[in-house]
Amino acid sequence: MDDMEFVGLGNFSHLFFEDLVFWGALRNNLVWMILTLVFMISVSLGLAMLLNAKFKGRTFFRGLFYFPFVLSGILVGIIWRWMYNVNFGFLNEFLSLIGLDQLRQTWLGDPNMALFYVFIAALWRGVGAPMILFLAGLQTIPEDVLEAADIDGASRFKKFFSIKLPMLKETFVIVLATQIIGSMGVFDIIVATTGGGPGNSTQVLASYMVQQTFSFANMGMGAALSTIMLVIMMIVVIPYVLFTTKER
């Protein structure tokens, strides 16, 4: 305790002006957020549209796509780490089985692509939650409005863009906010698949914070990182809370 020294804003200064890993982690969080907003939302909305139709077995498929979401991120990360295994993983074995040995690769060993491969695992796990929200929103759309559009000769695309999307406005706000918050706090699936590697190429703010705090015993740096994450979260959460609690 006698060796402790008050450094003021020194940790923040180090992160912003000297620590390249911090900027890489922040960039990865932003990339993850963009991938989430583009793919997670579009895929979940597409699944919701398909599973909102009336066909035999739709309840089973709803449960099938939602099931991965109830699994922990650590478990999903371990599953996909084995699938990506270079020697006996499912993907490389499948490629060999169909005669495409030239496409075998070290999936999580490529610093330029590892983050995207981890995101695929996150997409498989996370798509069920926004899908359920979109399903709930779609089922609140009055049938008479859709029937009136059919009578007027509106195409499926016209109904989707002119009726369904506008009436899903509040659902989109909830989904967007929750997905942005989740993308900024992503941690478990990163740790379970790559541990932030190779060469910190998949490091995100949460994993870097834990590494600094517990692996390097750098409590000050970990506290600075957590403060930065808190500020970023507040920028997202406060407008979301104000929107959802305003009087209608």
Protein architecture, described:
The protein has 248 residues and is mainly alpha-helical. The protein has a domain at 27-197: MetI-like fold. Helix content is 70%, strand content 0%. It is built from 13 helices and no strands. It has helices at residues 10-17, 20-52, 58-66, 73-83, 90-97, 114-126, 128-138, 143-151, 156-167, 169-184, 188-193, 205-215, 219-245. The longest helix is centred in the first third of the chain and has 33 residues, at 20-52. The radius of gyration is 22 Å and the shape is flat. The N and C termini lie far apart (55 Å). The mean pLDDT is 89.
Task: Put the structure in a nutshell.
This protein has 13 helices and no strands.
Helicity, as a percent range: over 70%
Question: Outline, from the CA principal axes?
Answer: flat
Number of helices: 13
Structural class: mainly alpha
The helix/strand series, from N terminus to C terminus, equals HHHHHHHHHHHHH
What is the CATH domain class of the domain at 27-197? Mainly Alpha
The CATH architecture term of the domain at 27-197 is Orthogonal Bundle
Beta fraction: under 5%
Biggest sheet statistics: none
**E-strand count:** 0
> Runs with pLDDT <50, length 5+?
none
CATH topology tier name of the domain at 27-197: MetI-like fold
Mean pLDDT: 89
Measure the end-to-end span: 55 Å
